[in-house]
Amino acid sequence: MLLESFALKFKNRKAYQQLQDCKTDGTITMHLLNLTTKRYTKWKNKCKTLKNDLLLADIQLDNKWGKWKTRTRNSEQLINNLNQQIFVLQNNIANMATLQDVMSSLSPLIAQIPQYIGQEPPDEYYNKVVQVFAYGHARSCWI
User: Whole-prediction pTM value?
Assistant: First the structure.
């Protein structure tokens, strides 16, 4: 009976130790599971953040591209408008004075200016010539 009692206590101790080992293993397993779950959650949130950052960067790039594209189109339209105005001015001969008309108006005025021989200050002579050409410019705009 003593031997049986000792064997029973030994078995109980062994079973108790195994139970404690299982509880410890279960605790360790739960701890590892919790760590893994937390790491997965952090990784998932980080991926969401990176995805949102990428989306925001893409939207900002689209906005900059749109502004650049609009600016370029505005510049192209301005160039086209200016080219059309130049074309209209070049082909609007009916309203412009011809060179012959301007020269025939300026010839008598230019003929009245004597050759410069140094008797008057150069500024006065220059002003006379400029006045004749200013009249010619005004005349070409009137015709």
Answer: 0.33
